[in-house]
UniProtKB/TrEMBL annotation:
<dbReference type="InterPro" id="IPR029069">
    <property type="entry name" value="HotDog_dom_sf"/>
</dbReference>
<dbReference type="InterPro" id="IPR054545">
    <property type="entry name" value="ApeI-like"/>
</dbReference>
<feature type="domain" description="ApeI dehydratase-like">
    <location>
        <begin position="13"/>
        <end position="92"/>
    </location>
</feature>
<protein>
    <submittedName>
        <fullName>3-hydroxyacyl-[acyl-carrier-protein] dehydratase</fullName>
    </submittedName>
</protein>
<dbReference type="GO" id="GO:0016829">
    <property type="term" value="F:lyase activity"/>
</dbReference>
<dbReference type="Pfam" id="PF22818">
    <property type="entry name" value="ApeI-like"/>
</dbReference>
Length: 120
């Protein structure tokens, strides 16, 4: 779990029953950046996905795992020194197979991750 150590939630709003908009602060001093990469930190793609997974799990109230990634695009790198806070916008719906979700991690006009998939 990355919440509380790798990132913290700054604000979280649920504009409706099937969406959540969260601003998170990244911990640029986290040990993961010593290996990814020294003197030029970059948030690993797997960490971006873990953040989405944790936020979806939190909003539906149960632990979920990614079952299917229909679309996953890493468009830009997140440097926690340049973008110490990012926004994670998620829309989701409960379906028979689990929870379908669409997520975007961004800062202002820069999009870092676009994801569409299924959690169960």
């Amino acid at each position: 779990m990355l919440a509380g150590k790798f990132y913290t939630i700054v604000t979280q709003q649920q504009p409706d029953a099937q969406s959540v908009n969260t601003t998170i602060a990244l911990n640029a001093a986290h040990p993961i950046f010593e290996g990814h990469f020294p003197d030029q930190p970059v948030v690993p793609g797997v960490c971006m996905m873990q953040i989405v997974q944790e936020l979806v799990s939190g909003v539906v109230g149960k632990k979920l795992l990614v079952q299917k990634a229909a679309n996953m695009k890493f468009l830009n790198m997140i440097d926690p020194l340049q973008q110490p806070q990012v926004n994670v916008d998620i829309t989701y719906s409960t379906v028979e197979e689990g929870v379908k979700a669409t997520a975007v991690i961004k800062h202002e006009a820069t999009v870092f991750l676009k994801f569409q998939g299924l959690f169960k």
